[in-house]
Structures are given as C-alpha cells and as structure tokens.
Write a structure and sequence with these properties.
4 strands; mainly alpha; about 5% strand; rod-shaped; disordered N terminus
C-alpha cells in the first residue's frame, strides 16, 4: 500500500529522499524571520526545493547550504542582487566560494580589530592617566595636583600623537610607578643643577649628555620625544612662567640653562 500524500508531505519532481524542513524551522535555525525567507523565495534568491500539496515551502539540506552562503555575504554587507550573482556564477566552484569567504573574513577581522583598538584608545584618552586616590596623589606629587591641569593639557596638545601616547602609557601607572618616575626626573634635574652650580657651560659635553638623558626619560615614561620636539619643550621652559618657576625653584638660572643644554644637544644630533 502506497503512503498517502498529506498536506505536510513534500512533493517534487522526484521526491528527493533528503530531509526537509518547514519555513518556521529554517527561520529558527538561521535566526531570521519567516518574512525574510518568503522574500528570498519571491525574488528567486532562495527557492525552496520542495513544497507540500498545499503549497507550503519545504527546504532541503541543499537549500540550507545556500542560505548559509546568503547570510554570510549579507553579514558582510553585500546587496541581495550581488549575492545572487555570486552564488549563481556558473564558473564558480565551492573552493572559489570558500577562498572568497576566507579573504573577506580576514579583511573584516582586521577592520574590527582596528575598530576595537580605536575604541580602546578613545576610552583611555578620557582618563587623566593618574589613577590614584587623593592621598596617593599628595604622597607622589606633593601640592601639585595634575588633575587641575588636565583640561589645559588636553586643549593644548590633545590633537597630537604625543598626547595620545602619554595617555595610553600613564593610564596604568601605579603609585609606585609614579614615585619611580618622579625620582628619575629629580635625579636628572639634580645632575643638571649641579653642572650649573659648577659653572659648566650649557653647550658642554656634560650638559648635553644630561639633556639627552632627559629626552630619553620623556620617551620612556610618556611619549616618543624626538630632538626637535625636545627643543620645543626646552623653549617652553623659559616662555611659560609656570615651567620657569618650577626650574628656578630647583636653582636660579636653571630654566634657561636647561633650555640652552637641550638646544645644544638637539643641534649636535640633527646637524647634517
């Protein structure tokens, strides 16, 4: 006795023995709506391989394979007409599709990694970079509060790569890191002040060596400081009264001596 054909029994030209799935099942598998599958059918992008006598769509394993391809290209932003052209290309073979997908995925991963890095840097740029409690900041910086100068610093240099580097590097500094950094800078200033006290010229070998040490300190602790940028900093030490006061408090005449040593050091390293 032959099996009767009911409304849910798929029919086709040869009644393929492959498993078949209803539109609702396929929508659930793929995480899309039934309406989307109906649309794909209507435009000929994904025509079900079988239907019941009542006309209900039934999808075969081959249909699911094609749907997977469609959704892949859609995820990458391909319009439906281009997806159809890719899948219906008579000269394409499965290996060509896999190679294309691999290349596209690799490009997408690289783009997403760059986007993630940009977002991470944006988050870091919103930090002051001195993540200490008020007590710790006082212990490290004394009566100088870097937070009070954060807005001015960002306004003056926020557009520069040096500022962005400094934000990234200092964001994770601990209290001990800041103590070490401040001690290193104090030692450099002490050596420079000692040369000034001894009457050693600012363009001497000794003073230029300390200036170079100062530049390398900035590069290691904050941002890549080339010689020309270092010279700009040196000039600021004598034109910005706050920097001048800081250096003059170390030793009278220190701001100009520091600037002159940095200028001399820059000249010897950048001379053609």
């Amino acid at each position: 006795m032959s099996h009767p054909v009911g409304q849910d029994h798929p029919v086709g030209q040869d009644r393929s023995p492959d498993r078949v799935y209803s539109v609702g099942q396929v929508a659930g598998f793929a995480g899309i709506t039934v309406r989307t599958l109906h649309h794909y059918d209507e435009i000929g992008l994904l025509v079900p391989g079988a239907r019941t006598h009542a006309g209900h769509r039934r999808y075969t394993d081959a249909d699911l394979d094609r749907l997977q391809q469609i959704l892949f290209y859609r995820e990458l932003g391909f319009p439906l007409d281009e997806v159809a052209a890719l899948l219906d290309d008579p000269d394409a073979d499965p290996r060509a599709h896999l190679r294309r997908q691999y290349d596209l995925l690799t490009a997408r991963i690289e783009k997403l990694q760059k986007m993630a890095a940009a977002v991470e840097h944006a988050m870091e740029a919103r930090k002051m970079g001195v993540n200490l409690t008020p007590e710790e900041k006082f212990e490290v910086f004394g009566d100088f509060d870097p937070d009070q100068h954060a807005d001015e610093v960002e306004q003056r240099w926020g557009h520069t790569e040096a500022y962005r580097q400094s934000q990234r590097r200092t964001a994770g500094y601990t209290k001990e890191d800041w103590k070490r950094i401040n001690a290193e800078l104090d030692a450099i200033h002490g050596r420079m002040a000692g040369l000034l006290a001894e009457g050693v010229p600012a363009d001497s070998e000794q003073a230029m060596e300390v200036a170079e040490e100062h530049r390398l300190f900035i590069t290691g602790a904050y941002y890549d400081c080339g010689h020309e940028l270092h010279a700009c900093l040196g000039e600021m030490y004598v034109t910005d009264e706050r920097f001048t006061a800081t250096y003059e408090a170390i030793r009278p005449g220190m701001a100009r001596y520091m600037r002159d040593a940095i200028v001399a050091n820059t000249a010897r390293h950048t001379a053609s």
